[in-house]
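Ticket #4471: structure output looks truncated?

Reporter: J.K.
Steps to reproduce: submitted the chain below (171 residues) through the standard prediction queue, then opened the result file.
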Amino acid sequence: MVRGNTLWVLLLPVLLCAACTNPFAPALADQNPDVPILGDQRTVEGVFQNFRYSYVFRDTLTYGKLLNRAFTFVYRDYDKGVDVTWGRDEDMIATNGLFAGVQNLDLVWNDVVQAEGDSLVQTISRGFILTITYSAGDVERAQGRVNLRLERPTSTDVWKIMRWRDESNYF
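Returned output as attached by the reporter:
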């Protein structure tokens, strides 16, 4: 038989837990369109959502999941008149340096300029605005366009970025 005091000792933790908010699992807030959430990478829009998420939260793990192992980044060096390329490892190092070297990043995707492909390969050209905050008094804004080649083995797999050609002219 359980005594009255013993019953309270057993019930008190249950009642306290039910009455409190768990700081490690907070309730979901109302959806704010300015705060990115992770998308379903089995959709092209999910890739762009995750790309934005990785930049806003400076999350190299999420960013790395976007890139195919054979990923190539390409940009035009207008001073030298040549295209410059690097692979996934170099891009991860460069992106980690960007993420670590700033206070804040905000990436806004503009309209898709061109999209073509099928259920396994997509080439998408899309505008963007990237706001880079180094400090309160040092904020830069870059506007440009990316041309991404997305691939996946089957239509149920996630899309991965195979090639990113930066078509901006601010380098």
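Triage note (M.O.): checked the attachment and the full token line is present. The first helix runs from residue 4 to 19.
Status: closed, working as intended.
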